[in-house]
Amino acid sequence: MAADTLNLGLRQIAEDYLARSLSPDEEQQLLSLQQNIQSQAPAAPSQAQLARQQVQRTIAQGQIHANSTMREILESIQASSSKALQVQETEEQAILKLLESSQSLAELRPSSLQPAMAGLQASSQLALTQIADHLSNLAKKEVENCFNQYFGPLTQQLQAVVTQLQNEQIKAADTSSATQASAPAPSEVLHNSPTTTSMQ
Predict the structure, then answer these.
(1) How far apart are CA 68 and CA 17, in angstroms?
(2) Which parts of 13-120 are beta strand (E)?
(3) What is the pTM of this model?
(4) How far apart are CA 39 and CA 27, in angstroms?
(5) How far apart are CA 150 and CA 102, in angstroms?
(6) Residues 37 and 54 in one domain
(7) What range defines the domain where residue 54 resides?
(8) How far apart are CA 2 and CA 8, in angstroms?
(9) 143 domain-assigned
(10) For site-directed labelling of 112, which of 20, 55, 142, 175 has its Cα 20 to 30 A away?
(11) Cα dist. 8→2, 29, 41, 95 in Å?
């Protein structure tokens, strides 16, 4: 709505109240009141801004939860490795050192652990490989759960926003088409003009 155009709804309310059409002076006064109200009203955030803010909040929450989950996984490795592996003390210390030196789950894959497991017994190598596979599966499931928990609702909200915007565009297009259809054709305007009548 242009700032110098009187709102149709506001005009209708005023004319219904007065039970007549507005005079030019009344229309100008009402337009001035409308512009004054618009200049004082705070700008509402757009749909895109609201969606962007929601995305930022969701990503921040997801990062916090992911960091907490990773810390729990690393603590679980350190707490359960000595119980899961019933080997001699030297083997146990070597496995703990290997786990603690790993910076990511990718380093715990069997292919990555082969050089480091060269000095371990066969039973210890098998146990460590099984632990790595189990932890990898747990981490994968936790990541999937985090994604579904934090990004599932966001996907639905964004889809709702897109649907609403599309509906508004369709409604605006229908209104524009109806306005053009109700306008008189140029030939009718020319035929009914005073110049045309006088010439006839």
Answers:
(1) 63
(2) none
(3) 0.27
(4) 18
(5) 28
(6) no
(7) 47-165
(8) 12
(9) yes
(10) 142
(11) 12, 15, 19, 78
Q: What six digits make up the tokens of 186?
A: 């140029």
Give the closest residue to 30 by CA, choosing from 65, 62, 58, 5: 5
> Would you state the structure tokens that stand for residue 24, as one six-digit string?
């030019």
Write the CB contacts of 37 (distance below 8 Å, at least 6 apart in sequence).
Answer: none
Q: In terms of domains, do 109 and 125 share one? A: yes
Tokens of 105: 């789950």
Q: Are residues 89 and 128 in the same domain?
A: yes
**Predicted confidence pLDDT, tens digits, the chain (200 residues):** 456 788 888 788 888 888 888 888 888 888 888 888 877 655 556 777 888 888 888 888 888 888 888 888 877 777 666 565 555 666 666 666 766 666 666 566 655 555 555 566 666 666 667 777 777 777 778 888 887 787 778 788 888 889 999 998 888 887 877 776 665 555 554 455 555 444 44
Radius of gyration of the chain (CA): 36
Distance CA 192, CA 94 (A): 101
